[in-house]
Amino acid sequence: MDSHILKTHPDSTIECRQLSEEFLEETLSLMEKVYFAEEKIVGAFGLTQDSQTIFEERQVMKNIIEDGVSVIAIDKNNNNKVIGACLNKIHVKPGSGEETFYGKIAKSSKASAIKSITEFDDYVIRKFFELCQVDCVLEFTMIGILPEYRNRGIAKTLYQIVIDLGRVLAKGVNAKKSVDGRELAVEPVPETIVGVCTSEKAWQVGEDMGFKLVATLDYEKFKCEEKTLADVQVEEISVVSMINYRHQDLLNDDVLWVVRILGGKIFHCGVVKFVIKLTLSLYSFLLLAQTYFFVFAPDADQLIQYGPLFFQMCYATLGMFVVLLRNRMIEDVMEVIDLWDVKSAGEEVEIDDDDQVFFTNWLMQKWFFGHTKCLIVLIKLTFFVAAPCMTVHGYQIIYTLQHVKFQMYMFNKYVEELTKGFTTCEY
């Protein structure tokens, strides 16, 4: 298979690949017809199709493509026609007095619209460095899909490929592909992926893919020929950033993913939250009632008898409050701790896949090569059974002790019944 091919879309006739020289001109033409014609920000800055503007926008795209992280989608049933493209740029934080990639273009541009657009981009990319506190970012620069191929998930597939490329680069693997056959250096390595959403729909896609909002820009600030973006009624501009690669990579490839789900992620589900809120309301009422009687009608015997379960209910109520109000411990820890890459311990312990973690995977490949994938999926499904089984012994102990306690209580009652009607004496 061609090393440029990255993924086949669920529609098997559509193939997603890194951009190569044979598709370069067709990709540039597609972006001119789709992205530059339809993108709201571009339109707001009054981009025209005069010869100077067309020349400069092509140069900008070629400079972006040089980084080797741009991807396209082609229709194999239509003579490998380019039907979509996502052009991406790696930016390194500029030093004091230095210009960004966009800043350099803005200074040299002779087309007013290109100058205004790149000045806007320069502001945004500097804002990203400030807000994300990183030295290198991979930017979703521009994406375009032909109208007849839209609403088929192609854009989302292209985005996911770029995210995967970013993860690979973050591990130190050179996944860049130049359009002219040159060998590209793995450096600089991006630490996060960023992008600008100019519509609610675009932001929804970003949120679904794991991005988080880092800022919202007021488009009153940005002008082109004395008009602001607000004057031309562009939709709100939201600046979004994806969480750090290494953290995202850890959460995606985590062998303890079942524990992570049971320890927090399951409580992010709306249905689970609703059930917890109902339970919390009931517990809160019962606690208030019990507290009232313990305080205003104190009875030592009742306090001794019901105290343990009362304090147990207090702990459960506190737990439900924490789960509802602050249940992001894993995410918070991952965001503030710089995790060591596995390569820090040396090449001999590098872990590239599950086969080096699960001995069963190795056995499946050795003994059942033709059915490896199915058997590995079957083994992973057993995790849902194994996880509860790992904690079942604690529940068994609690269950047994409660029954023993109850039997002792019944034995005491039985002895009391036996002694009824008899007087006791000491000899």
Automatic annotation (TrEMBL):
- Reading the lineage from the top rank, the first entry is Eukaryota
Gene3D superfamilies named in the record: 3.40.630.30
Gene Ontology terms for molecular function: N-acetyltransferase activity
**Keyword match rRNA-binding:** no
Q: Which UniProt keywords apply?
A: Membrane, Transmembrane, Transmembrane helix
Transmembrane intervals: 274-297, 303-325, 374-398
Q: What InterPro entries does the annotation carry?
A: Acyl_CoA_acyltransferase
**PANTHER family cross-referenced by the UniProt entry:** GH28833P-RELATED, N-ACETYLTRANSFERASE-RELATED
The name on file for this protein is N-acetyltransferase domain-containing protein
| Annotated source species | Tenebrio molitor (Yellow mealworm beetle)
